[in-house]
Amino acid sequence: MKSALITGITGQDGPYLAELLISKGYKVYGLVRRLSTPNMENIQHIYDKIELLSGDLLDQGSLTDAIKNSKPDEVYNLAAQSFVKASWDQPVLTGEFTALGVTRILEAIRTVDPKIKFYQASSSEMFGKVTETPQKETTRFHPRSPYGVAKVYGHYITLNYRESYNIFACSGILFNHESPRRGIEFVTRKITNAVARISLGKQNKLELGSLEPKRDWGFSGDYVEAMWLMLQQEKADDYVIATGENHSVKEFVQEAFKVVGISDWEKYVVANEPKHMRPAEVDYLIGDASKAQKVLGWKPKTSFKELVEMMVKADLEREQNK
Ligand code: NDP
Ligand code: GDR
């Protein structure tokens, strides 16, 4: 039986990855940090199928112990301070979690067992102010936020441990991916939650920042399969994972209101709210995942329309049951 340790198991991607690995017969361990009120909502349904270990990206000893105690074949590092907007408010902490946290895990692998395979959650935010369209593995990085800068560090330290110690370490450069488990502060979930509430008469306004940025939005459940596939190859490498299609925030809003049958959506939306604007914006992302398709045989399965509908319907159900 193979085993895997997932950091960030309580977030959006962690539970989808855990479900996939369980279905493949893995013993799954999840790293959780101590919180006064544990955040278990996203893993409630698999709670008895996984084993949780306590650890924090800030604490080297706890990461080393987690790896010693779980003896995993594979480590998936999904933990991070992942909200781009917050990275301007807490740039140092973001660097500690999202950049140095990667080195701490790699150090734990190097010292405990360098044969453990490692997946790093890199991000399309590394492309930031894009120099090429669509963006692929060789596109130059120009991050636009402390988060993006931290992810570039995480990306290169992963490559460095591969080259320095021959560790099987891969980075998945994942473009935005969403789901009903997405945190409420990210724009997609903020929109689908508000649309559900507006249609039920519980809310009458949706305040957003800019409606212009375009993102290549996929479904988290599709993307975790690519993470697993990367670690099953002969050779460690880096891959862009994306749908190859992008849409503006405005299009996401329109599509979400369409699901509940509201066409005059403008009357509910307040755009360009200063508190939701960013000091530097990433205007346009669209990924070229042809390498992943060719080498991993990976393709996204869920369309933009299906994704929006899935998220709105899940929020409607949640709000109706409240
Ligand atoms: P989430 O923000 O939903 O989850 C982040 C996870 O990291 C949570 O489980 C959180 O735990 C954990 N975490 C945060 N800080 C620490 C810490 N100090 N020690 C241990 N655990 C910690 O992220 P997603 O699931 O959306 O994304 C997974 C990864 O992929 C992240 O690294 C993200 O940056 C990256 N990524 C995401 C993309 C996306 O579109 N979703 C695209 C590209 C990259 P807690 O519950 O305690 O807060
Ligand atoms: P992003 O996701 O920054 O792309 O990072 P987010 O959903 O936060 O923003 C997407 C775009 O929407 C614009 N926007 C708003 N965003 C939020 N959150 N709230 C608003 O009110 C709002 N109004 C407009 C943003 O300015 C932005 O252009 C996500 C995270 O998951 C990262 O961890 C990951 O690495 C990248 O995706 C790929």
Keywords:
322 residues; alpha/beta; Rossmann fold; UDP-galactose 4-epimerase, domain 1; 2 domains; 7-stranded parallel sheet; two-stranded parallel ribbon; 10 helices; 13 strands; globular; binds NADPH dihydro-nicotinamide-adenine-dinucleotide phosphate; binds guanosine-5'-diphosphate-rhamnose
Can you offer a commentary on this structure?
By secondary structure, the chain is an alpha/beta fold. It has two domains: 3-177 and 217-241, Rossmann fold (3-Layer(aba) Sandwich), CATH 3.40.50.720; 183-215 and 246-285 and 302-320, Alpha-Beta Complex (UDP-galactose 4-epimerase, domain 1), CATH 3.90.25. It contains ten helices and 13 strands. The strands form four sheets. The chain has a seven-stranded parallel sheet, with helices on both faces. The protein has a two-stranded parallel sheet with strand order 7-10. Strands 8-13 form a two-stranded parallel ribbon. Strand 1 (3-7), helix 1 and strand 2 (27-32) form a beta-alpha-beta unit. Helix 1 (13-23) crosses helix 7 and helix 6 packs parallel to helix 8. It is globular and about 60 Å long. 48% of the residues are buried. NADPH dihydro-nicotinamide-adenine-dinucleotide phosphate binds at residues 7-14, 33, 35, 39, 56-58, 78-82, 97, 121, 123, 174, 176-177, 183.
